[in-house]
Design a protein that fits this description.
This protein is 47% helix and 15% strand. It is of the alpha+beta class and 116 residues long. It has a 4-stranded mixed beta sheet, sandwiched between helices.
Amino acid sequence: MTVILYGIKNCDTVKKARKWLEQAGVDYHFKDHRADGLVPAQLDHWLSVLGHEALVNKRGTTWRALSDEQKATLSPDTAAALLLANPAMIKRPLLNIDGELHLGFKPELYASLFNQ
């Protein structure tokens, strides 16, 4: 099983997810959007599977700092460029288990995913 957790290392929710995975003994790789960067083709895949409405974090400071025009023009066509320019706007954590994507962290979800 290949498990990759995507996020930003100083995000509290990502820290909780990493701690849960470590305590559960799950072997995983962590990729930081800021430190490691984003691969445009991978982002396009995430957008096609999850949709821009799910993938864009509209609760964070990065979203609030956008202009009204940027917010108003968010669409499937504009989301990739916006997220590439602002990787902190990707909802996190994003968990990839053998190609199956899961957004956010809830201990009960992770427990069901890893049969804990």
